[in-house]
From TrEMBL:
Protein name: 5-methylthioadenosine/S-adenosylhomocysteine deaminase
Enzyme type, top EC level: hydrolase
Top-rank taxon: Bacteria
Record-linked NCBIfam families: PRK09045.1
Protein residues bound to Zn(2+): 72, 74, 221, 309
Cofactor: Zn(2+)
Gene that specifies this protein: mtaD
Keyword Cell wall biogenesis/degradation included in the entry's annotation: no
Keyword Secreted: no
GO molecular function, one term: S-adenosylhomocysteine deaminase activity
Amidohydrolase-related domain: residues covered: 64-412
């Protein structure tokens, strides 16, 4: 018999749901990790025989899943959580959020808000987030420092903002940022055109060309409300997605966020272009924007990922609870109880998210050769009992607060519910400080 191989980490768990192979749960197995990469998923006795681990973690009542991918958000908006509620999108944005952003946006605000959001996401099992916000260099640096994986999309609007004077300035700063993070293992920079209704044709066409040249993702709010679609027909004589298609903007690199208003032509455009859909059920419900036909998209072979949107329209960043909402809503929208079953909901929050971000060769499932981005959920409390199907428990009961451990590329970000790369007390203090400033002027 050959000598045991030395590895950095072995995690032994009661259950492992690797997402690939599909619909499977392994019991009493171990994940073997070395150099940040998954080396094996084997029965625990076999792990004992074959490997010598520098660190071994035993999780006797826990389920291991791939780290969650939050495919759409505005992390720094955590500081505007609860600032304006119970409003439809247009009133919420134009009457409250944009004026607040005009007044308060700064490097410091984005840095503090992003760190607060990352802490919340890590604590509820997210390892990778997709962000669109001002001062994206702050978001990118914060993610790198906290060792979270992120796609950071620099904003592009026709209008000026605290971050730039207009499209020219946004492109100059954004492309420089893309260059700065070209070699990063964790952070990828993409284009963040805000929405079709805040951008004219010229910058959209430029984004289409540059994204193809750089092989960089495009992240855009699209068909979020009925008003967006009807105003586009009035102004441009076409639906927003048709306009994007004609400007060359639709491809597998394009991440279409929301898509609550769709007809057969829209579905064809997404399917035939290979574009990605990001579903944000809680934000869509809260702003009364509409319903994304997720099961219909999946049946058409369209990739659908899951996002929380910002904390100002959700109002939390818990992707596990988003999974539950997505699963329940899909059943109501499709009129079928078997729509978005528990395993499909988990896939939407992991592998589909990875695919939407072009990262599915590296993350999204617990497969040998993939990065060790792992989340552990403890299923030992009363509302978790009894456990017949751990994935059903994960999706249909409230598990966000049961996340105990999180790793990204083999590095621990959460151990026994304690953050390892961010300071929770300090972040709470900073959030309170910001709220005092902002409330004073509200
Ligand atoms: C390009 S920076 C992000 C920009 O988007 C605003 N925003 C936040 N949530 C939404 C949403 O659901 N639809 C449209 N725009 C949204 C955010 O406040 C920033 O200004
Ligand atoms: Zn959004």
């Amino acid at each position: 018999m050959s000598a045991p191989q030395t590895v950095s980490l072995i995690i032994k768990a009661r259950w492992i749901a690797p997402v690939v192979p599909e619909n499977r749960v392994f019991e009493h197995c171990a994940l073997v990790v070395d150099k940040g990469v998954i080396q094996a998923l084997v029965p625990q006795e076999e792990a004992d025989k074959r490997y010598d681990a520098q660190q071994e973690i035993f999780l006797g009542n826990h389920l291991l899943i791939p780290g969650l991918v939050n495919a759409h958000g505005h992390a720094a908006m955590s500081l505007l959580r609860g600032y304006a509620d119970d409003l439809p999108l247009k009133q919420w944005l134009e009457g409250h959020i944009w004026p607040a952003e005009d007044q308060w946006l700064s490097e410091d605000m984005v840095r503090d808000g992003t760190e607060l959001a990352m802490a919340e996401m890590i604590r509820s099992g997210t390892t990778c987030f997709n962000d669109m916000y001002f001062f994206p260099e702050q978001v990118a640096q914060a993610a790198q420092q906290a060792h979270m994986r992120a796609q950071v999309n620099f904003p592009v609007f026709d209008a000026p903002s605290a971050w730039g004077q207009g499209p020219e300035d946004y492109f100059r700063k954004g492309l420089a940022l893309h260059d700065d993070f070209r070699a990063s293992e964790l952070v990828r920079i993409g284009f963040g055109p805000h929405a079709p209704y805040t951008l004219s044709d010229e910058p959209l066409t430029r984004i289409a060309t540059l994204a193809q040249e750089l092989d960089a993702p495009i992240h855009i709010h699209l068909h979020e409300t009925a008003q967006e679609v009807s105003e586009s027909i009035e102004q441009h004589g076409k639906r927003p997605i048709q306009r994007l298609a004609e400007l060359g903007l639709l491809s597998p690199l394009t991440q279409c966020v929301h898509m609550t208003q769709v007809d057969e032509g829209d579905i064809e455009l997404i399917r035939d272009s290979g574009a990605q859909v990001v579903h944000c059920p809680e934000s869509n419900l809260k702003l009364a924007s509409g319903f994304c036909p997720t099961q219909r998209f999946l049946d058409e072979g369209i990739n659908v990922a899951l996002g929380t949107d910002g904390a100002a329209s959700n109002n939390d960043l818990d992707l596990l609870s988003e999974m539950k909402t997505a699963a329940l809503l899909a059943k109501a929208v499709a009129g079928r109880a078997d729509a978005l079953d528990a395993h499909s909901a988990l896939r939407m929050a992991t592998l589909n998210g990875a695919r939407a971000l072009g990262l599915d060769e590296h993350i999204g499932s617990l497969e040998v050769g993939k990065s060790a981005d792992i989340t552990a959920i403890e299923l030992s409390d009363l509302p978790s009992q009894p456990v017949y199907h751990p994935v059903s428990q994960l999706v249909y009961t409230n598990c966000g607060h049961k996340v105990s451990h999180v790793w990204v590329a083999g590095k621990a970000l959460l151990l026994s519910r304690q953050l390892q790369t961010l300071n929770e007390r300090e972040l709470i203090g900073k959030a309170r400080w910001w709220a005092k400033q902002i409330k004073g002027q509200h």
